[in-house]
Amino acid sequence: MCGIVGLLDLKERREVDRELLGRMNQTQFHRGPDGEGRHVEAGVGLAHRRLAIIDLAGGAQPLSTPDGRVTVTYNGEIYNFPSLRRELEALGYTFRTHCDTEVIVYAWLAWGERCVERLRGMFAFGLWDRERKVLFLARDRLGIKPLYYAEMENGWLGFSSELKALKVHPKFSRELDPLALEDYFAYGYIPDPRTIYRRAHKLPPGHYLVMRQGEAMPAPKCYWDVRFEPGATLSESEAMEGMIERLREAVEVRLIADVPLGAFLSGGVDSSAVVAMMAGLMKDPVDACSIAFGDPAFNETEYAQHVARRYGARHRIQQVDPEEFSLIDRLSGLYDEPYADSSALPTYRVCELARQQVTVALSGDGGDENLAGYRRYRWHAYEERMRSLMSSPIRRPLFGTLGKIYPKMDWAPKFLRAKSTLEALARDSVEGYFHSISVMGDGLRQNLYSGRFKKQLDGYHAVEVLRRHGENAPENPLSRVQYLDLKTYLPGDILTKVDRASMAHSLEVRVPILDHPLVEWMATLPPDYKLRGREGKYIFKKALEPHLPDDVLYRPKMGFAVPLAAWFRGPLREKVRSALLGERMLDSGWFDPAFLHTMVDQHQRGLRDYSAPIWSLLMFESFLRQA
Question: Is the pTM of this model over 0.90?
């Protein structure tokens, strides 16, 4: 895995500031400590930090064709590069290395913009074609690898793997985007294509951008989308067989490396499935690592150990404790913009643990989105059935009124906490799903925001992110919310978390369940093969029964969470108060100071559970200190 940086003069062909390009590149040293390279010509500069995985001796970048016409700086892995290489050699192209990078430059020459459609893997790259005067930026289909770009105030365009590289440029605008802040406090992350900065953007997954010197900045173009359309009718046994066959193949192509390779093992279904497949394909025992929590309600290591023993894995465990609060500033620096998924903390530690033994790790990310593993899918299906029984003119005022008068009882047993469900039933399908996934609901955000902030939003509401994607979403209620998560939560939260946490330790993470042929095939499965009754990942679990014990497959889902509510009332009590109620937050102009006090006081007295909002505010406060 690597870090990429580039500069393009959009107006003329001015000389590139080599020293500036080098400093931008150096900010991403952690992404590639094994080497660095730069390519500079009139109006164009490309740079690269390398983490050597394949062809350790011959894969230096930026890489150019022998005539210098095409140069690429690239981050990722192309798993089908051997077959592409043979195809390109048959077309007359001659290769000088054994790495996958060289495939990209000849694929561009052979197929132009459509080259991305031929690539199987995770990637983000910038390619310069001197003859066509074109800079081509591309990102993989699911958004496993990041790519940021921004137009500077002096007419240059910059792109990079992380925002921190763009921030080095003296003409980069650091003006915050109020709409991105609304998105952040709603979702806990900032969905593509926005960033926290008004003038910087994320290239969306499955998109590319073609820029020509002297022309206006174009809009990104979509080259891939997942289609939840019925495929060939499969019996359950056929679907189970197809699932294992495709998963095993997706794992197998990700075992190619010239460096030590291992896996994350949380004890959940997805990571356990990946380890089971690896064990059947590798000669040596799998190197697996897990994170433990002192609180048994969050600790899954018993199940991870069960899987490790079954497959003879070399298994290591590390415990995360409340003192890990000291990582907040470190995490904020990694993400470069507010990011509020608290599982970033154990993810950081599990990556640190893995890197002690391996350079590449396989993860189980993507199973929940593709196979309906989240509990919220079950609740959404229930709410959709309720919505179908009552017309909107009746349902909205009825449940809206019930939602307003029903008390908020975070302290009560779950079956009495009906307020959120009643509020969701008063909304349409997309609004209801937005309500269920929001870190802070509409009412909470309205109470939190200052009057000035509300004016800056000018009526903008974060639900518009889902509505935009909803225009292309399938009709089936379950498939619709899976599609929305694949477009927002997966790249914006899950994959961002793993990329930054792993790259902080110079660790490459590969994601077999997000192999795009597998994703396309899973999308064609009937919805009831994914969610049946109360059982998510139904067909996946059935297929894995010969490979994993029932107590791993069919126990309640725990997730990779941390016990924030207890931490904020106990060992981290004073740290929360000093951060959220200090001058920086109270004087920032973004928040209502009185409500900040109310939120902290009510949580710490046990009257309300504000743990997720408090964490998001802590991460924002840390961002403000480092911005």
Answer: yes
